[in-house]
Amino acid sequence: MPSDKRARQRAQREAKRAAEQKQAKRKRLMKNVTWALVAIVVVGSTGWYFFHPKPTPPPAPLTPQQRANNLAVAAGCSANPHTRANELSWKSEPALSLAPHTSYVAVVKTTAGSFTVALNTTTTPHNTNNFIFLARHDFYHCVIFHRVIPGFMNQGGDPTGTGTGGPGYVVKQNEFPTAVASADAAHQYKLGAVAMANSCSQSTPASSCPPTNGSQFFIVAGAQGEALPPRYTDFGQVISGMSTIDKINAEGDINAASDGTGTNLKVTNRILSVTITTTSN
After folding, report:
1. 20 to 30 A Cα–Cα from 14, which one of 29, 215, 220, 261?
2. 234 and 96 in one domain?
3. In sequence order, which ranges of 96-160 are alpha helices (DSSP H)?
4. Nearest 5°: phi and psi at 139?
5. pLDDT at 238
6. End-to-end Cα spacing for the chain
7. pLDDT in tens, 137-162
8. What is d(CA 224, CA 250) in angstroms, rounded to the nearest whole number?
9. pLDDT value at position 1?
10. What is the DSSP letter of 270?
């Protein structure tokens, strides 16, 4: 029979071995738990990376031409500013139908902003009547300013956008303005004057210019326009929105005098609508 001392020693060894086994088991458990947590973190992070919605990068800023095109499309125009605006055509100029004792104003909305024109019914009734007729038939809807020369003028009104189009007829009366004194020739036209474009040479005397006015018009936007000879029917005056005229002019093409097709403009702006309002005098 083992002595009590040996029994105690054996019991101590067994207790120590049991404690060591328990500690080893605890270490293995902690190690397994640690690896499990690491795996959860890795899998979770990977899943978040692959399945969490990625932030959408901000869109690239629109160019001025894209902004102008978007405004035109929203108004019912083609996305391409060089697409023909309409096929409207008439055989002869409209009959004179201006109401007596009435003031006419045109509000012109464009891709560069809006401006307002007081129309001249006194000295240019036929050309003013023509403009009102075309505006009320939406002839100018989506038509571009095809010839814009900085420091000079903004020209539009041609549905083909080439500078060669018109309404199918010419206005038979030129209704040119009276020439100012030679000392004032640099200011024959006011800034913001709205005049009919024609095919008469600047060197041709006004009395020799045949009628060629149709739908094309220009707006004086600089000193060169102010100094034009009196061979262009001045049928209106911008009374508000001159900043829009200046914006269109600044986005023009200095070489447009020899081009005129709107292809080299910084921005090809379009007329979105022309609204005619009247006031009884």
Report:
1. 29
2. yes
3. 125-136
4. -65, -35
5. 98
6. 139
7. 999 999 999 999 999 999 999 999 99
8. 14
9. 47
10. B
Opening angle at CA 47, ends 43 and 51, nearest 5: 175
Task: Sort 67 into a burial class: Cβ within 10 Å, 0-12 / 13-18 / 19+.
Answer: middle
Handedness of CA 149, 152, 153, 159 (dihedral sign): negative
Provide the number of structural domains found in the chain. 2
Do 173 and 194 have their domain in common? yes
271 neighbors 142 (Cβ within 8 angstroms) = yes
- List the alpha helices (DSSP H) in the chain: 4-51, 64-74, 125-136, 223-226, 242-250
Contact 253, 266 (CB under 8 A): yes
Q: Which of 157, 113, 141, 136 is nearest to 251 (CA)?
A: 113
Q: Which domain holds residue 189?
A: 64-280
> What's the CATH number where 257 sits?
2.40.100.10
- Residue 159 sits in the same domain as residue 224: yes
Give the separation between CA 131 and CA 55, rounded to whole angstroms: 52
Q: Which of 57, 82, 97 is the last residue of a domain?
A: 57
What residue type is assigned to position 257 of the chain? A
